[in-house]
Amino acid sequence: MTDGTGRRALITGASSGIGLAFARVLAERGYDLILTARREDRLQAIAQDLSQRHAIRVTVESVDLAEPDAVARLVASLEARALTVDVLVNNAGFGVPGSYVSTTWAEQQRFLQVLVVALAELAHRLLPGMIERRWGRIINVASLAGLLPGVAGHTLYAASKAFVITFSESLALEAAPHGVHVSASCPGFTLTEFHDVTGTRDKVSRLPGFMWSDADDVARASYDAVMAGVPVFVPGRVNRTIATLARVLPNILVMAAMKGTGSRYRKT
Fold first, then answer.
1. Nearest-angstrom CA–CA distance, 184 and 83
2. Which residue out of 31, 157, 223, 265 is catalytically annotated?
3. Can 31 be counted among the known catalytic residues?
4. Burial of 55 per CB tally in 10 Å (0-12, 13-18, 19+)
5. How many CB atoms lie within 10 A of CB 28?
6. Which domains does the chain have, with CATH numbers?
7. What's the pLDDT tens digit per position in 85-126?
8. Higher confidence at residue 259 or residue 130?
9. Across-strand partners of 136?
10. What is the pLDDT of residue 196?
11. Which of 1, 15, 138, 224 sits CB 3.0–4.6 Å from 42 for a disulfide?
């Protein structure tokens, strides 16, 4: 597939997990890439592999999106080199496990800066160019958790993802008349390093195999969804069933179910 030939995609959190999967999927489709994350050594290795494998240009930008001026510096660096962005994949993120009061505000502030503020700022800074060129795609990686009631542990996680979903819906309505599609991808449990980093691997490993998704499958389906103009997309049949049940069942029943199952995979 070569629908990305002549276009460029920026992917945040591209050094592993779903971000890396998006890099592979977009490279297969011929997009030149801009890969961002904190781990420059991993990005360079990925860039070399993808550029050789798919004959594309890959630019590496090592940034920490938790720094308040990181997005402004990133965009200024791209503008200085005349690197336009046609596809934005807002994927960078992490979790802060534990009860809300057992963590520091500095941790929670860093979390919000990456998952909410940087995501919204990148869209705000890059959308005008897409509108001017009359073509663009923005994929905001949310979560199935954003469509469900919150549970104890990772307290701001579901709340931040709910923001991403609603933000994406509104932005999709604004951008569509200008040839720009915006989509929130809402994967469930996905095989990545996320649960190792948050220290919840032992808990989530108890979940049955059918609950897990492959990162490449998530990225591929999410790309197809944004190309089709789907504003909110839930990858995987099981996840779509859960999302539907959460929408149609009485909230008191859904809350009771979440309370009973949340402790199985959240560090409280």
1. 25
2. 157
3. no
4. exposed
5. 18
6. 8-265 (3.40.50.720)
7. 999 999 999 989 889 999 999 999 999 999 999 999 999 999
8. 130
9. 180
10. 47
11. 15
